[in-house]
Design goal:
The protein has about 120 residues and is mostly beta strands. The chain has strands at about 5, 10-15, 20-25, 35-40, 45-50, 60, 70-75, 80-85, 90-100, 115, 120-124.
Amino acid sequence: QVQLVESGGGLVQTGGSLRLSCAASGRTFNSYAMGWFRQAPGKERDFVAGISRGGVSANYADSVAGRFTISRDNAKNTVYLRMNSLKVEDTGVYYCAAQSTTYSGTNWRQYPYWGPGTPVTVSS
């Protein structure tokens, strides 16, 4: 089992940048593929980015490809999401999630472990 805690959210203007972090507890962090999801008010939880447990393979939602970068540091039990060129539609609560597979899935139902989330608000 793994516990996750996100940080780094906040208020930013359109075009700005943020870096989210997700710290994991436990000694088997490199056993998990990791994902970032976001949920806007009244909407479903959507996939944003995922990274394989070794950090070699990453995948992105079309809406963020080229603007966001996911990375991980297995020595620090942390996964990151660098967000550039932020848009108003990027607003939402961002969650990191873990699944005990090699590669990251895009469906939130595939992930059994979740952090409490960190809010991101992009203002125009």
